[in-house]
Structure to design on (229 residues):
């Protein structure tokens, strides 16, 4: 009964590490596909919209499908559409609407960041706990291996090496699970930060083009009034 319990605990530790490994590689493959898709969509959208941004916000430009940049731009355009209605009545509210537009796009960038970071917590947790889970299995295995050796009354190398060597497998497996989890976590974190920088830069560029367009319109309007007088 005792031997069955010892085996069950060690086997349970190895099974848990196996589940950790399966979950780690599932998250890695999922996030890698998501990262590649986001980069491709953003690059395609940025190439199609670049000329429009250089000359001002153009609502007739392609929507960009599921690109993150398209969603940030859609938030800016939605606020801009509301501003156009109000600015025809109150021309002195440009600054307030520009502030609202910036906040709307920043909020969307934060949503995109939260979406990209989802799942990375599993990698961080597995990377930090897997070695300890493996160490627990090893300590448990060694403890009961030494107990069995004591009961046999022999400490020869043949008697000691086998059980202890088997117990050390848990630690090795724990480290093998933790290494790819930690590497993948750091990699995806760096990649997500780069994408967030790209989204922030795009939002700033969009806001700059919008402000420039409004200033041009104000100048033309004021010159028209001066000429009329």
């Amino acid at each position: 009964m005792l031997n069955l319990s010892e085996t069950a605990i060690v086997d349970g530790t190895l099974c848990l590490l196996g589940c950790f490994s399966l979950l780690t590689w599932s998250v890695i493959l999922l996030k890698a596909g998501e990262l590649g898709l986001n980069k491709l969509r953003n690059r395609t959208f940025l190439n199609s919209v670049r000329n429009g941004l250089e000359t001002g916000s153009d609502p007739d430009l392609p929507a960009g499908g599921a690109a993150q940049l398209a969603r940030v731009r859609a938030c800016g355009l939605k606020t801009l559409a509301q501003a156009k209605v109000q600015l025809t009545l109150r021309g002195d509210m440009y600054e307030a609407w520009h502030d609202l537009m910036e906040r709307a796009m920043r909020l969307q960038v934060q949503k995109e960041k939260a979406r990209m970071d989802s799942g990375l917590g599993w990698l961080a947790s597995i990377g930090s706990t897997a070695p300890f889970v493996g160490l627990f299995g090893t300590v448990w295995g060694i403890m009961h291996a030494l107990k069995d050796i004591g009961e046999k009354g022999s400490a020869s190398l043949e008697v000691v090496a086998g059980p202890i060597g088997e117990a050390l497998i848990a630690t090795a497996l724990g480290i093998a699970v933790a290494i790819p989890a930690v590497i993948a976590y750091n990699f995806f974190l760096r990649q997500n930060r780069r994408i967030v920088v790209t989204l922030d830069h795009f939002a700033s560029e969009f806001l700059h083009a919008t402000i420039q367009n409004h200033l041009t319109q104000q100048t033309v309007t004021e010159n028209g009034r001066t000429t009329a007088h």
